[in-house]
Amino acid sequence: MKKLLIPAIALVTALSAGPALAHEGHMDAMWHKLGLAADQKKQLEDLHKKQGPEMAEGKKALMKEVHTMADLFADPSATDAQLQTEYDKLQKAADADMKLYYQHLMAMRAIMTPEQRKKFAGMARHWIHMRHMGMGMMGGHPGMMGDHHEHED
To answer: Per residue in 115-127, pLDDT tens?
Structure first.
């Protein structure tokens, strides 16, 4: 299960960027590489339109907690108890976010053939590798998922 989830997280994260990726042709390229039939493409697009906003909100809530944790960590007056409380909030947000991604992944999986699932996992592994190399999720857009920007309150 862990082998399935880790690469899938990368792909679902990429999918959560939604229209921005589609405008750049990344989604079409991914659909082409997977060899999706027209009906599968439509089902996946409909699925993303339906679940995308909720996933975006989950990611937004998680990032809020990540930034709060970073700010608290840097605060010299923060206590260990405050950090633990914030960590617990962060973990709860991460769990909720991952649940949404998992549900989306399982719905996508139901649409794909076994061969498409295998290709999908390979593509996601590539994106994880590229992200760790500092090249972003799509391999050539530095920091698409990896840049660390100052957040605004």
So the answer is: 999 998 888 887 7
